[in-house]
Write a structure and sequence with these properties.
This protein has 411 residues and is α+β, with helices and mostly antiparallel strands. The protein has a 7-stranded antiparallel β-sheet. Strand 8 and strand 9 form a beta hairpin. Helix 1 runs parallel beside helix 5 and helix 4 packs across helix 5. The N and C termini lie far apart (62 Å).
Length: 411
Amino acid sequence: MVSREDAVRLHEDGFLVLPRLLGSSAIEEVRALLDPLFASFDRLPTGVRRDLAGATGASLRPRSAEIERPSRLEQRLRGTDVFRRCQAVARALCGPSVGYSFDHAIYKSPFNQAETPWHQDQAYTGHRRLLQTCHFWIPLQPVTIESGCMQFIRGSHAAGLRTHGRRPDGHVRVVEHAEDERAVACPLPLGGVTIHHPLTLHYTGARLDSPLRPLGALRQAAPGHRPREDGVVGRRAPMTSRPQPDAGSVAAFLAFYEWARQEPLYIILGAQGSGTNLLVRLLARVYGMSVMRDQSLVLKTAARVPAPASPQSVARAFATLGSHIAPSALARRTRRRLLHRDDQLAGIDRVFPMARVDSATDLAMFVHAYRAFPGRARLMGVKSDDIWAHADDLPRVHPNRRIILLTRDPR
Protein backbone atom coordinates (compact mmCIF):
# COMPACT_ATOMS: atom_id res chain seq x y z
CA MET A 1 0.00 0.00 0.00
CA VAL A 2 2.81 2.38 0.96
CA SER A 3 6.55 1.85 0.92
CA ARG A 4 9.49 2.99 3.01
CA GLU A 5 10.25 5.49 0.25
CA ASP A 6 6.74 6.93 0.67
CA ALA A 7 7.33 7.43 4.39
CA VAL A 8 10.66 9.14 3.72
CA ARG A 9 9.05 11.38 1.09
CA LEU A 10 6.26 12.44 3.47
CA HIS A 11 8.71 13.37 6.22
CA GLU A 12 11.14 15.15 3.89
CA ASP A 13 8.68 16.94 1.59
CA GLY A 14 5.82 17.38 4.04
CA PHE A 15 3.32 15.80 1.65
CA LEU A 16 2.73 12.60 -0.28
CA VAL A 17 0.65 11.83 -3.36
CA LEU A 18 -1.03 8.41 -3.70
CA PRO A 19 -2.74 8.52 -7.10
CA ARG A 20 -4.49 5.14 -6.90
CA LEU A 21 -5.29 4.43 -3.28
CA LEU A 22 -9.07 4.04 -3.61
CA GLY A 23 -11.35 2.25 -6.02
CA SER A 24 -14.30 3.88 -7.77
CA SER A 25 -16.76 1.85 -5.68
CA ALA A 26 -15.19 3.19 -2.46
CA ILE A 27 -15.56 6.76 -3.74
CA GLU A 28 -19.16 6.16 -4.75
CA GLU A 29 -19.93 4.73 -1.29
CA VAL A 30 -18.78 7.94 0.40
CA ARG A 31 -20.42 10.17 -2.18
CA ALA A 32 -23.77 8.45 -1.63
CA LEU A 33 -23.55 9.20 2.10
CA LEU A 34 -22.38 12.81 1.74
CA ASP A 35 -24.80 13.94 -0.98
CA PRO A 36 -27.89 13.86 1.30
CA LEU A 37 -26.05 15.90 3.93
CA PHE A 38 -25.25 18.64 1.43
CA ALA A 39 -28.78 18.47 0.01
CA SER A 40 -30.04 19.42 3.49
CA PHE A 41 -27.13 21.79 4.23
CA ASP A 42 -29.36 24.71 5.32
CA ARG A 43 -31.10 22.49 7.87
CA LEU A 44 -27.94 21.21 9.55
CA PRO A 45 -26.98 22.59 12.98
CA THR A 46 -25.25 25.95 12.58
CA GLY A 47 -22.26 24.73 14.59
CA VAL A 48 -21.27 22.16 11.95
CA ARG A 49 -21.82 24.08 8.71
CA ARG A 50 -20.30 27.19 7.18
CA ASP A 51 -19.46 28.76 3.84
CA LEU A 52 -15.66 28.88 3.62
CA ALA A 53 -15.95 31.52 0.90
CA GLY A 54 -17.58 33.91 3.38
CA ALA A 55 -21.13 35.01 4.01
CA THR A 56 -23.21 35.03 0.83
CA GLY A 57 -26.63 36.02 2.14
CA ALA A 58 -29.50 33.85 3.30
CA SER A 59 -30.93 33.35 -0.17
CA LEU A 60 -27.70 32.50 -1.95
CA ARG A 61 -26.16 29.08 -2.35
CA PRO A 62 -22.82 28.67 -0.49
CA ARG A 63 -19.82 28.76 -2.79
CA SER A 64 -17.70 26.47 -0.59
CA ALA A 65 -20.04 24.66 1.77
CA GLU A 66 -18.21 22.90 4.62
CA ILE A 67 -19.58 20.30 7.05
CA GLU A 68 -17.45 19.60 10.12
CA ARG A 69 -17.31 15.99 11.31
CA PRO A 70 -19.87 14.58 8.86
CA SER A 71 -19.13 11.14 10.30
CA ARG A 72 -21.01 12.22 13.43
CA LEU A 73 -24.07 13.10 11.35
CA GLU A 74 -23.79 10.02 9.12
CA GLN A 75 -22.05 7.37 11.20
CA ARG A 76 -21.92 4.89 8.33
CA LEU A 77 -19.02 6.93 6.97
CA ARG A 78 -16.80 5.42 9.68
CA GLY A 79 -17.41 1.96 8.23
CA THR A 80 -16.55 2.81 4.63
CA ASP A 81 -13.60 1.45 2.72
CA VAL A 82 -12.24 5.01 2.45
CA PHE A 83 -11.97 5.30 6.24
CA ARG A 84 -10.48 1.82 6.58
CA ARG A 85 -7.85 2.28 3.88
CA CYS A 86 -6.82 5.73 5.08
CA GLN A 87 -6.35 4.38 8.59
CA ALA A 88 -4.26 1.50 7.25
CA VAL A 89 -2.05 3.93 5.35
CA ALA A 90 -1.71 6.20 8.39
CA ARG A 91 -0.62 3.25 10.51
CA ALA A 92 1.91 2.17 7.90
CA LEU A 93 3.36 5.69 7.77
CA CYS A 94 3.15 6.70 11.42
CA GLY A 95 2.96 3.52 13.49
CA PRO A 96 0.25 1.13 14.67
CA SER A 97 -1.23 3.38 17.37
CA VAL A 98 -2.78 6.02 15.11
CA GLY A 99 -6.52 6.56 15.16
CA TYR A 100 -9.22 8.82 13.79
CA SER A 101 -8.98 12.45 14.89
CA PHE A 102 -11.14 14.70 12.69
CA ASP A 103 -12.99 14.84 9.37
CA HIS A 104 -14.76 17.45 7.30
CA ALA A 105 -16.31 17.65 3.84
CA ILE A 106 -16.41 20.58 1.41
CA TYR A 107 -18.76 21.03 -1.54
CA LYS A 108 -17.32 23.58 -3.98
CA SER A 109 -19.81 24.99 -6.43
CA PRO A 110 -18.73 25.43 -10.09
CA PHE A 111 -16.98 28.64 -11.13
CA ASN A 112 -17.08 29.66 -7.47
CA GLN A 113 -14.18 32.14 -7.66
CA ALA A 114 -13.28 31.09 -4.10
CA GLU A 115 -9.81 29.81 -3.47
CA THR A 116 -8.67 28.24 -0.21
CA PRO A 117 -5.64 30.44 0.55
CA TRP A 118 -2.18 29.30 1.59
CA HIS A 119 -2.23 28.11 5.17
CA GLN A 120 -1.02 25.48 7.63
CA ASP A 121 -3.57 23.32 9.43
CA GLN A 122 -1.62 23.83 12.66
CA ALA A 123 -2.76 27.47 12.56
CA TYR A 124 -6.26 26.41 13.61
CA THR A 125 -4.93 25.23 16.98
CA GLY A 126 -1.91 27.53 17.28
CA HIS A 127 0.97 26.72 19.61
CA ARG A 128 -1.20 25.51 22.46
CA ARG A 129 -1.42 21.97 21.07
CA LEU A 130 1.20 20.68 18.67
CA LEU A 131 -0.60 18.41 16.24
CA GLN A 132 0.90 14.97 15.75
CA THR A 133 -1.26 13.98 12.82
CA CYS A 134 -1.27 13.19 9.12
CA HIS A 135 -3.99 14.77 7.00
CA PHE A 136 -5.70 13.08 4.03
CA TRP A 137 -7.30 15.10 1.23
CA ILE A 138 -9.74 12.93 -0.70
CA PRO A 139 -11.43 14.39 -3.80
CA LEU A 140 -14.51 12.46 -4.89
CA GLN A 141 -13.79 13.14 -8.56
CA PRO A 142 -10.71 13.61 -10.75
CA VAL A 143 -9.09 16.98 -9.99
CA THR A 144 -6.94 19.30 -12.07
CA ILE A 145 -5.49 22.75 -11.49
CA GLU A 146 -8.65 24.18 -13.10
CA SER A 147 -10.90 22.28 -10.68
CA GLY A 148 -8.89 23.23 -7.61
CA CYS A 149 -6.43 20.42 -6.96
CA MET A 150 -4.22 20.55 -3.89
CA GLN A 151 -0.94 22.48 -4.09
CA PHE A 152 1.92 22.28 -1.58
CA ILE A 153 5.19 24.04 -0.86
CA ARG A 154 7.77 21.30 -0.52
CA GLY A 155 9.65 21.27 2.79
CA SER A 156 7.63 24.14 4.31
CA HIS A 157 6.75 22.03 7.36
CA ALA A 158 10.37 22.21 8.54
CA ALA A 159 10.16 25.99 9.11
CA GLY A 160 7.60 25.77 11.91
CA LEU A 161 4.33 27.63 12.31
CA ARG A 162 4.03 30.80 10.21
CA THR A 163 2.14 33.95 11.14
CA HIS A 164 -1.43 33.73 9.82
CA GLY A 165 -4.07 36.33 9.27
CA ARG A 166 -7.81 35.74 9.00
CA ARG A 167 -10.38 36.38 6.35
CA PRO A 168 -13.19 38.80 7.24
CA ASP A 169 -15.47 35.91 8.28
CA GLY A 170 -12.98 35.15 11.06
CA HIS A 171 -12.54 31.43 10.32
CA VAL A 172 -10.26 30.87 7.34
CA ARG A 173 -6.56 31.34 8.11
CA VAL A 174 -4.17 32.70 5.51
CA VAL A 175 -0.40 33.17 5.16
CA GLU A 176 0.02 36.48 3.36
CA HIS A 177 3.47 35.89 1.88
CA ALA A 178 3.76 32.24 0.92
CA GLU A 179 6.45 31.26 -1.58
CA ASP A 180 3.84 30.29 -4.17
CA GLU A 181 6.42 30.25 -6.96
CA ARG A 182 7.63 27.00 -5.35
CA ALA A 183 4.15 25.48 -5.37
CA VAL A 184 3.80 21.85 -6.42
CA ALA A 185 0.39 21.18 -7.97
CA CYS A 186 -1.00 17.67 -7.42
CA PRO A 187 -3.72 16.76 -9.95
CA LEU A 188 -5.31 13.40 -9.20
CA PRO A 189 -7.35 10.77 -11.00
CA LEU A 190 -10.47 9.32 -9.40
CA GLY A 191 -9.39 7.44 -6.28
CA GLY A 192 -6.23 9.46 -5.67
CA VAL A 193 -5.47 11.17 -2.36
CA THR A 194 -2.84 13.48 -0.93
CA ILE A 195 -1.42 13.29 2.59
CA HIS A 196 0.29 16.17 4.33
CA HIS A 197 1.91 17.25 7.58
CA PRO A 198 -0.02 19.76 9.76
CA LEU A 199 2.73 22.35 9.21
CA THR A 200 2.91 21.98 5.42
CA LEU A 201 1.75 25.06 3.52
CA HIS A 202 -1.04 24.16 1.09
CA TYR A 203 -3.60 25.81 -1.15
CA THR A 204 -6.47 24.97 -3.47
CA GLY A 205 -7.53 27.29 -6.26
CA ALA A 206 -10.99 28.49 -7.25
CA ARG A 207 -13.07 26.06 -9.29
CA LEU A 208 -13.03 27.02 -12.95
CA ASP A 209 -14.99 24.00 -14.17
CA SER A 210 -18.60 22.92 -13.86
CA PRO A 211 -18.99 19.41 -12.33
CA LEU A 212 -20.54 19.45 -8.86
CA ARG A 213 -18.80 16.97 -6.56
CA PRO A 214 -17.86 17.10 -2.86
CA LEU A 215 -14.44 16.39 -1.45
CA GLY A 216 -13.44 15.12 1.98
CA ALA A 217 -10.58 15.57 4.39
CA LEU A 218 -9.68 13.08 7.08
CA ARG A 219 -7.17 13.54 9.88
CA GLN A 220 -5.47 10.58 11.53
CA ALA A 221 -3.82 11.16 14.91
CA ALA A 222 -0.35 9.75 15.47
CA PRO A 223 0.64 8.03 18.73
CA GLY A 224 1.20 11.31 20.56
CA HIS A 225 -2.56 11.97 20.53
CA ARG A 226 -5.43 9.81 21.66
CA PRO A 227 -8.81 9.93 19.89
CA ARG A 228 -11.66 9.97 22.38
CA GLU A 229 -15.02 8.38 21.64
CA ASP A 230 -16.40 11.71 20.43
CA GLY A 231 -13.56 12.07 17.94
CA VAL A 232 -11.87 14.95 19.74
CA VAL A 233 -8.12 14.63 20.00
CA GLY A 234 -6.77 14.53 23.55
CA ARG A 235 -3.30 14.30 25.01
CA ARG A 236 -2.15 10.78 25.71
CA ALA A 237 -0.37 9.88 28.92
CA PRO A 238 3.29 8.89 28.51
CA MET A 239 3.76 5.30 27.44
CA THR A 240 4.99 2.99 30.19
CA SER A 241 6.15 0.40 27.69
CA ARG A 242 6.79 0.59 23.99
CA PRO A 243 5.36 -2.01 21.58
CA GLN A 244 7.87 -3.92 19.50
CA PRO A 245 8.34 -2.23 16.12
CA ASP A 246 6.60 -3.74 13.11
CA ALA A 247 7.48 -3.20 9.45
CA GLY A 248 5.24 -0.16 9.07
CA SER A 249 6.47 1.62 12.18
CA VAL A 250 10.10 0.82 11.29
CA ALA A 251 9.70 2.53 7.93
CA ALA A 252 8.07 5.52 9.59
CA PHE A 253 10.82 5.72 12.21
CA LEU A 254 13.59 5.57 9.61
CA ALA A 255 12.01 8.54 7.86
CA PHE A 256 11.68 10.34 11.19
CA TYR A 257 15.34 9.61 11.96
CA GLU A 258 16.47 11.07 8.63
CA TRP A 259 14.69 14.27 9.62
CA ALA A 260 16.08 14.17 13.19
CA ARG A 261 19.68 13.87 11.97
CA GLN A 262 19.43 17.47 10.77
CA GLU A 263 17.84 18.83 13.95
CA PRO A 264 19.62 20.38 16.94
CA LEU A 265 19.85 18.66 20.32
CA TYR A 266 18.96 20.87 23.29
CA ILE A 267 21.40 20.41 26.17
CA ILE A 268 19.94 21.50 29.50
CA LEU A 269 22.53 22.65 32.03
CA GLY A 270 22.30 24.20 35.45
CA ALA A 271 23.68 24.21 38.95
CA GLN A 272 21.98 22.17 41.63
CA GLY A 273 18.74 23.84 42.62
CA SER A 274 18.57 26.02 39.51
CA GLY A 275 15.33 24.46 38.29
CA THR A 276 16.47 22.14 35.50
CA ASN A 277 14.09 19.36 36.55
CA LEU A 278 11.15 21.75 36.53
CA LEU A 279 12.24 23.08 33.14
CA VAL A 280 12.38 19.54 31.72
CA ARG A 281 8.79 18.92 32.83
CA LEU A 282 7.64 22.22 31.34
CA LEU A 283 9.38 21.61 28.02
CA ALA A 284 7.82 18.16 27.79
CA ARG A 285 4.33 19.35 28.69
CA VAL A 286 4.20 22.62 26.74
CA TYR A 287 6.37 21.86 23.70
CA GLY A 288 6.32 18.06 23.63
CA MET A 289 10.12 17.91 23.92
CA SER A 290 11.64 14.46 24.38
CA VAL A 291 14.32 14.81 27.07
CA MET A 292 16.64 11.95 27.90
CA ARG A 293 18.24 11.65 31.34
CA ASP A 294 21.06 9.17 30.92
CA GLN A 295 23.99 10.43 33.04
CA SER A 296 25.82 11.23 29.80
CA LEU A 297 25.91 7.59 28.73
CA VAL A 298 24.94 8.25 25.10
CA LEU A 299 27.39 11.14 24.80
CA LYS A 300 30.26 9.18 26.35
CA THR A 301 29.63 6.10 24.22
CA ALA A 302 29.29 8.05 20.98
CA ALA A 303 32.48 9.94 21.77
CA ARG A 304 34.39 6.65 21.57
CA VAL A 305 33.54 6.32 17.88
CA PRO A 306 36.62 7.47 15.95
CA ALA A 307 36.56 9.93 13.09
CA PRO A 308 36.32 8.85 10.39
CA ALA A 309 34.13 6.05 11.69
CA SER A 310 34.01 2.52 10.38
CA PRO A 311 30.88 0.34 10.43
CA GLN A 312 32.61 -1.91 12.95
CA SER A 313 33.40 0.94 15.38
CA VAL A 314 29.82 2.22 15.21
CA ALA A 315 28.47 -1.30 15.78
CA ARG A 316 30.76 -1.80 18.79
CA ALA A 317 29.62 1.47 20.34
CA PHE A 318 25.99 0.56 19.83
CA ALA A 319 26.62 -2.85 21.41
CA THR A 320 27.97 -1.02 24.46
CA LEU A 321 24.78 1.01 24.64
CA GLY A 322 22.76 -2.16 24.19
CA SER A 323 24.31 -3.69 27.28
CA HIS A 324 22.91 -0.77 29.26
CA ILE A 325 19.54 -0.73 27.54
CA ALA A 326 18.94 -4.45 28.14
CA PRO A 327 21.31 -5.40 30.99
CA SER A 328 21.62 -8.74 32.72
CA ALA A 329 20.20 -9.23 36.21
CA LEU A 330 23.68 -8.84 37.71
CA ALA A 331 24.31 -5.65 35.76
CA ARG A 332 21.02 -4.21 36.97
CA ARG A 333 22.20 -4.64 40.54
CA THR A 334 25.75 -3.35 40.07
CA ARG A 335 25.81 -0.77 37.29
CA ARG A 336 25.24 2.89 37.97
CA ARG A 337 24.59 3.98 34.41
CA LEU A 338 21.61 2.15 32.95
CA LEU A 339 19.08 3.04 30.28
CA HIS A 340 16.85 0.02 30.84
CA ARG A 341 14.42 2.09 32.92
CA ASP A 342 13.57 4.12 29.82
CA ASP A 343 11.09 1.79 28.11
CA GLN A 344 10.91 4.14 25.12
CA LEU A 345 14.12 2.44 23.93
CA ALA A 346 12.66 -1.07 23.80
CA GLY A 347 13.22 -2.68 20.39
CA ILE A 348 15.96 -0.27 19.33
CA ASP A 349 18.34 -3.17 18.62
CA ARG A 350 15.97 -4.48 15.93
CA VAL A 351 15.92 -1.16 14.09
CA PHE A 352 19.61 -0.24 14.33
CA PRO A 353 20.83 -2.53 11.50
CA MET A 354 18.41 -0.85 9.07
CA ALA A 355 19.38 2.75 9.85
CA ARG A 356 22.10 4.87 8.27
CA VAL A 357 24.42 5.42 11.25
CA ASP A 358 27.83 6.53 9.96
CA SER A 359 29.37 8.64 12.72
CA ALA A 360 29.40 9.51 16.40
CA THR A 361 26.79 12.19 15.74
CA ASP A 362 24.55 9.74 13.90
CA LEU A 363 24.77 7.23 16.74
CA ALA A 364 23.78 9.74 19.38
CA MET A 365 20.94 11.22 17.30
CA PHE A 366 19.72 7.73 16.40
CA VAL A 367 19.14 6.99 20.10
CA HIS A 368 17.53 10.38 20.78
CA ALA A 369 15.31 10.07 17.68
CA TYR A 370 14.19 6.56 18.66
CA ARG A 371 13.14 7.81 22.06
CA ALA A 372 11.35 10.83 20.54
CA PHE A 373 9.55 8.90 17.82
CA PRO A 374 6.46 7.54 19.67
CA GLY A 375 5.27 11.09 20.36
CA ARG A 376 6.71 12.49 17.09
CA ALA A 377 8.50 15.04 19.25
CA ARG A 378 9.77 17.92 17.14
CA LEU A 379 12.29 18.86 19.84
CA MET A 380 14.88 16.59 21.45
CA GLY A 381 17.04 17.27 24.47
CA VAL A 382 19.26 15.76 27.14
CA LYS A 383 19.63 16.58 30.80
CA SER A 384 22.51 14.95 32.70
CA ASP A 385 23.99 16.17 35.96
CA ASP A 386 27.52 15.16 34.95
CA ILE A 387 27.51 16.45 31.39
CA TRP A 388 29.97 19.16 32.48
CA ALA A 389 32.64 16.48 32.83
CA HIS A 390 32.25 15.58 29.15
CA ALA A 391 31.85 19.06 27.70
CA ASP A 392 34.92 18.56 25.50
CA ASP A 393 33.08 15.82 23.61
CA LEU A 394 30.07 17.99 22.76
CA PRO A 395 31.47 19.78 19.67
CA ARG A 396 32.29 16.51 17.90
CA VAL A 397 29.28 14.44 18.96
CA HIS A 398 26.69 17.25 18.78
CA PRO A 399 27.95 19.97 16.44
CA ASN A 400 24.32 21.07 15.93
CA ARG A 401 23.40 21.77 19.55
CA ARG A 402 21.57 24.40 21.56
CA ILE A 403 22.54 25.07 25.16
CA ILE A 404 19.92 25.98 27.75
CA LEU A 405 21.80 27.20 30.82
CA LEU A 406 19.97 27.96 34.06
CA THR A 407 21.63 29.94 36.82
CA ARG A 408 20.50 30.56 40.37
CA ASP A 409 19.45 34.04 41.35
CA PRO A 410 21.98 35.09 44.02
CA ARG A 411 19.29 37.07 45.81
